[in-house]
Amino acid sequence: MTSTSFIEINGREIALDKDGYLVQLADWDEDVATSLASEEQITLDPAHWEVINLLRVFYNRHQMSPANRALVNLVKRDLGPDKGKSIYLMKLFRGSPAKTASKISGLPKPENCL
Amino acid sequence: MSCLHTVNRSPDSKLLESCLRVINADDAILFIEDGVYHCASKISLQAIVETVKVYGLREDMLARATLSTALDRVEPVDTSRFVELCSEHDKVVSWF
Amino acid sequence: MTENANTAKPAKSRITFISRSAPYGNNRANLCLDMALASAVFEQDVNYVFLDDGVYQLLKGQDAAAIQSKTLGNALETLALYGIENVYADQQSLKKRGINRAELLPGMQLIDSDAVAKLIESADTVFNL
Amino acid sequence: MKFSIVIYAAPYSSESAATALRFARSLIEQGHELYRLFFFGDGVHNASKLTVVAQDEINLQQQWSELIEQHDIDSVICVSSALRRGVLDQTEADRHELGSASAYESSEVAGLGQLIDATLHSDRVVNFG
Fold first, then answer.
1. What is the distance between the alpha carbons of residues C41 and C78, in angstroms, rounded to a whole number?
2. What is the annotated signal peptide range for this record (chain D) (predicted)?
3. What CATH number does the domain containing B86 carry?
4. Domain tally, chain C
């Protein structure tokens, strides 16, 4: 078993693995997302939410977490060319946008293959 | 640009058929593993156009008792010649 | 990726993937897709060809939940998002299996055997499984 | 000439892993360079060190490891294939808190980027499955 830590949200104990990903994907809700974001020093605003919602729809449909390239194209396709840019997403989600945004959106931890 | 195709399954598999559909006339085929059962099969070899060179991996033919029954069209090659064939052709496509 | 200073090679190669296996019964279709997506992430020039039983991957309406598996057809829909535009289905393989164009996922270009041969010929590397 | 070899087959289940091993040996003997071995899918079992083989049969995994060490070959086990199949190096075993490693130290667990890199830096990529 991977060692876990817990964050308390609305009286619920939410288990995180040591990389900060949800142990149970079903634990995700908007309050959990807000809390996961704050662990990354990110305060969620509507610009973040539209990407988070897009990612969750993408995951539910395709059962995969997109790599950065696919995320950029996904945002470009669904939110328009102004937002479908690495630089825009990097401002919203520091580090690797696909990884950070996937974590906050409650998607599974990537297998490090890509 | 010529290409070496390796085929590793027996005639029942239809793997050779797939390979032959997309092969170019100056390519070559090397039968390996269970693929060497093609080496004694007139039907298999007839399906391969004359310009395509046909090889069989000697070690696999020996193991499967197909070395002595192989048809003249097939040139038995050992693994070191397999390596040479890979470098003599521009690329290798493995059918398995 | 590790760069080796004494091997100056172009940063881009042309890779043709031939996906020849039906989904679910074994993992070859998934391995092929994983390789192609990785190639796209590393910005290689990718061609993706569905041949033989591989065309079964393209059927619309797959739902693999009942066999505890991810639905491959839904994953294939992401090829375009990964920048893989050259996606082909072999006409003869479809015909042999009685599959009509209308039954296929969108975005497939139907090609004949000669065109598949050309995609093999023009590639630097071919992955075929 | 620079070769890379991709192995999809588990040892013993089919002949392919043994064919690949003989091919690898032969190309090295002929003075070619083996740029990378890439074990993918069931092929990752070739890197498992927790194996016992009858005394009068060859231990393929051990022979791979000896070849890799003897010639200092860059040998990669695909991480997503390996984790699923329990072939772990110490780093992955520690990361997932699974105790001891099960892969030979001669191979490294890494991603598909290493395969793409191999296609870029090799003159020939030869697949065995």
1. 12
2. none
3. 3.40.1260.10
4. 1
Instruction: Please state the domain extents for chain A.
Output: 4-104
Which residues of D are catalytically annotated? 78
CATH class, range A4-104: alpha beta
Q: Residue D36 sits in a domain of what CATH number? A: 3.40.1260.10
A14-49 pLDDT tens trace: 999 988 899 999 999 999 999 999 999 999 999 999
Q: How many CB pairs under 8 A join A and C?
A: 38
Interface contact D126-B84, CB threshold 8 A: no
**Nearest-5° Cα angle at A111, C49 to A56:** 80
Supply the range of the domain harboring residue B13: 3-95
Q: How many domains, chain D?
A: 1
Interface contacts B/D by beta carbons within 8 Å: 51
Q: Look at C78 and A114 and tell me if their CB atoms are within 8 Å.
A: no
What is the widest separation between alpha-carbon atoms in chain C? Answer: 52
Q: Do the strands A12-17 and A4-9 form a parallel or antiparallel pair, or are they unpaired?
A: antiparallel
Residue D105 belongs to domain spanning: 2-128
| C82/A114 CB distance under 8 A | no
Whole-complex ipTM: 0.94
pLDDT of residue D42: 98
For the stretch A53-79, pLDDT in tens is: 999 999 999 999 999 999 999 999 999
Interface check for B83 against chain D (CB to CB < 8 A): the answer is: yes
- ∠ at Cα B80 (B79, B82), nearest 5°? 60
d(CA C7, CA D103): 30
Stretch D51-63: mean pLDDT? 96
Q: How confident is the model at residue C1 (pLDDT cuts 50, 70, 90)?
A: very low
Write the pLDDT tens digit of every residue in C5-55. Answer: 444 556 899 999 999 999 999 999 999 999 999 999 999 999 999 999 999
- Our count of domains for chain B comes to 1
Regarding chains A and B, contact by 3 or more CB pairs under 8 A is answered as no
Verify whether the Cβ–Cβ distance C81 to A61 is below 8 Å. no
Report the CATH number that the domain containing residue C53 is assigned in CATH: 3.40.1260.10
C116 within some domain: yes
